Amino acid sequence: MAADLNSDLFSPFIPMKSNDDSIACARHLLRAARRKFFTRPYDAVSLEEIAASAGITEAKALGLFASKEELFASLVVQEMAAAAVEIWCRTIGSTDMEAVLLQVARNYVGLFGSNRAREIYRSLICVSARFPHLGRIIYEHGARVLLERLSGYIAARSAQGCLAVPDPDLAAQQFLSLVHGNLHLREVLAAQPVSDAEIDRVIESGVRLFLAGYRRDQPPESRAARSEHLARSADECRSAGGATSH
């Protein structure tokens, strides 16, 4: 889950009309910040240290970001925006709704269950508690991007007659909650490792429950056929995941 800082730089803190030198410095600063913030506790990293690692002065860094907190928030926004794109990988062009939802769920849980994501989450708790406005910015430009894309997909499938969803935004939130369960809390707060089998169980159950609640009414034989197809898709996803990990 790493943003491409060579692409067009977006930060909620840097004016869109910034000159080329400022954009280049911001990229260097964000790369250095990533190395520091994602390998050490947030409070153990200073803006002076990050600036030195980026090869610029602290004063120059403060000309781009008003504080260490803003630099961190900008970095997280880019990381989460990149994750929102990565979560949809291998689903583009697919017309199989169950397979798409399973893939999105597996990508989502896989990305946000990584060690790096857990470190980001712990730092987010620290920053947002002290600076609530930064927490709101991170949500609006990061997590909300993922929810909006998922909501759009759900709305489109509903318009096609596959789902009956009166509130796609709420359905998107429900979907992510169903396929993630309490896995994140167990890993971050209780430091309990979660097995692949448990992750599969939560994801598959969550997708089944979501579809049971929102799929348009169908004849019993059609529901049975789709349930069998969903189980087969889950087996294929597990097999693909196992092949990738070896």
Range of helix content: over 70%
CATH architecture of the largest domain: Orthogonal Bundle
Number of helices: 11
What is the end-to-end distance? 20 Å
Question: What is the succession of H and E elements?
Answer: HHHHHHHHHHH
The number of E-state strands comes to: 0
The CATH topology of the largest domain comes to Tetracycline Repressor, domain 2
According to CATH, what is the class of the largest domain?
A: Mainly Alpha
List the helices and strands and how they pair.
Blueprint: H1 20-37, H2 47-54, H3 58-64, H4 68-86, H5 97-112, H6 115-130, H7 132-159, H8 168-180, H9 183-188, H10 196-214, H11 220-245
Helix pairs in contact: 1-2, 1-4, 4-7, 5-10, 5-11, 6-7, 7-8, 8-10
Explain this structure:
The chain has 246 residues and is mostly helical. The protein has two domains: 1-67, Orthogonal Bundle (Arc Repressor Mutant, subunit A); 87-245, Orthogonal Bundle (Tetracycline Repressor, domain 2), CATH 1.10.357. The chain contains eleven helices and no strands. α1 crosses α2 (47-54), α6 packs across α7 and α8 runs antiparallel to α10 (196-214). The longest helix has 28 residues, at 132-159. The chain is elongated. Mean pLDDT is 79; it is low at 4-8 and 240-246.
